[in-house]
């Protein structure tokens, strides 16, 4: 059916079908009910590449009764998907203006029109429509879902929370992670307004909604860092391994700084070596290499990198190996310098972060994927995609 409708689109667009529909007489409307064989004939003309004849027939098919409402809804939807939003809006507005529509049909047309407005960036109008629908009997969940999307785009986190709670009451499942992130967003807003008390209260709610939300741990560690509480930072950072080891690169610099401020270099090395035996990521390898170099010299560091590369070949390891060799450069210095340049260029093209839902590559960490809008799906890239 969809294929047929797609075939009809250019015909409908060119024919002025919608305009003609308004001027049809009552007798013609009655006649239209008897035109299904002709409609099929029209499709046949189309399929046989005789669009002119098909247009003549379709122009006569202007009646909007319970059957053709569905067709118009489907066509409006297709226009929107094709990016022809103005045309979709006209179709849906015309439908809504018809007094013959019953409740559910009107609600469906409102839902579609709201989506047209969203697509056109007319968020105020979309919000009004979805708010009306959210109070009605039909399409309540869809309306609330769309409202949630609008409030997320507007970064109105308080209303996101309220809407998510309403969605939950309406029967929607799997909202905990999103609600937890909304609390995190409110915590960050409070921090920006220099109100750490409110921020901590929001983080508590965020953790209550989703214990596995590593973002809560990272923000708490950040707050402790700003307060100069190194012990709390270390304790917080150590939780990341149990929650979501992929985010370890996010806390390594903080962890190193705090251990060093507390003059516990030995404990840092012990902890990182243990971590490396369980999660041999490239950022961790780089940090360990520097520590080994400081303690035992370049050769020991090089041996460590070589061992890492043998088990986990990656560009960062290769770059480190070349850098270590350049530092002890001999006759091969020029070749190494060229090799380093090439590796650096390749590293520049690597994405630091990647969405595990849609594959979106990013240079910085987004907690909501800008592409698929999932929360908490973008993680530090292990092997590096291309940004
Ligand atoms: Zn994504």
UniProtKB/TrEMBL annotation:
Cytoplasmic side: 21-387
Tagged with keyword Repressor: no
Places the protein is found: Cell inner membrane
Every LapB rubredoxin metal binding domain range: 353-380
Keyword terms, alphabetized: Cell inner membrane, Cell membrane, Iron, Membrane, Metal-binding, Repeat, TPR repeat, Transmembrane, Transmembrane helix
UniProt topology in membrane: Single-pass membrane protein
An example Gene Ontology biological process: lipopolysaccharide metabolic process
Binding site for Fe cation: 355, 358, 369, 372
A Pfam family the protein falls into: TPR_7
Gene Ontology CC terms: cytoplasmic side of plasma membrane
Single GO term (MF): iron ion binding
InterPro entries per the UniProt record, alphabetical: LapB (IPR030865), Rubredoxin_2 (IPR041166), TPR-like_helical_dom_sf (IPR011990), TPR_rpt (IPR019734)
Record SUPFAM superfamilies: TPR-like (SSF48452)
NCBIfam families in UniProt: PRK11788.1-5
Function: Modulates cellular lipopolysaccharide (LPS) levels by regulating LpxC, which is involved in lipid A biosynthesis. May act by modulating the proteolytic activity of FtsH towards LpxC. May also coordinate assembly of proteins involved in LPS synthesis at the plasma membrane.
Similarity-based family: Belongs to the LapB family.
Name of the protein this chain belongs to: Lipopolysaccharide assembly protein B
The species this protein was found in: endosymbiont of Ridgeia piscesae
């Amino acid at each position: 059916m969809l294929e047929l409708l797609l075939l009809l689109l250019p015909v409908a667009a060119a024919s002025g079908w919608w305009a003609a529909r308004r001027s049809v007489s009552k007798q013609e409307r009655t006649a239209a009910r008897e035109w299904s064989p002709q409609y099929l004939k029209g499709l046949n003309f189309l399929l046989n590449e005789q669009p002119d004849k098909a247009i003549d027939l379709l122009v006569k098919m202007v009646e909007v009764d319970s059957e053709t409402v569905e067709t118009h809804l489907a066509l409006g939807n297709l226009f929107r998907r094709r990016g022809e939003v103005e045309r979709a809006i006209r179709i849906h507005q015309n439908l809504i203006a018809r007094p013959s529509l019953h409740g559910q049909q009107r609600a469906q047309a409102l839902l579609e029109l709201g989506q047209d407005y969203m697509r056109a960036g007319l968020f105020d109008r979309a919000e009004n429509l979805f708010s009306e629908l959210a109070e009605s009997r039909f399409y309540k969940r869809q309306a609330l879902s769309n409202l949630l999307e609008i409030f997320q785009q507007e970064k109105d986190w308080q209303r996101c929370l309220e809407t998510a709670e309403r969605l939950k009451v309406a029967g929607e499942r799997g909202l905990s992670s999103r609600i937890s992130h909304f609390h995190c967003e409110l915590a960050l807003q409070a921090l920006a307004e220099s109100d750490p008390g409110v921020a901590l209260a929001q983080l508590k709610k965020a953790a209550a909604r989703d214990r596995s939300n590593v973002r809560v741990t990272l923000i708490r560690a950040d707050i402790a860092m700003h307060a100069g509480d190194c012990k709390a930072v270390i304790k917080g950072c150590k939780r990341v391994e149990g929650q979501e080891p992929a985010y370890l690169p996010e806390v390594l610099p903080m962890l190193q700084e705090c251990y060093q401020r507390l003059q516990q270099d030995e404990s840092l090395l012990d902890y990182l070596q243990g971590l490396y035996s369980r999660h041999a990521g490239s950022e961790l390898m780089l940090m360990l290499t520097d520590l080994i170099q400081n303690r035992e010299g370049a050769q020991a560091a090089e041996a460590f990198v070589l061992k890492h590369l043998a088990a986990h070949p990656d560009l960062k390891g290769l770059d480190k190996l070349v850098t270590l060799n350049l530092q002890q450069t001999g006759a091969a210095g020029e070749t190494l310098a060229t090799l380093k340049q090439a590796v650096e260029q390749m590293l520049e093209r690597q994405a630091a972060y990647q969405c595990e839902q849609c594959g979106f590559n990013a240079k910085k960490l987004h907690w909501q994927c800008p592409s698929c809008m999932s929360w908490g799906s973008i993680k530090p890239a292990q092997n590096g995609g291309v940004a």
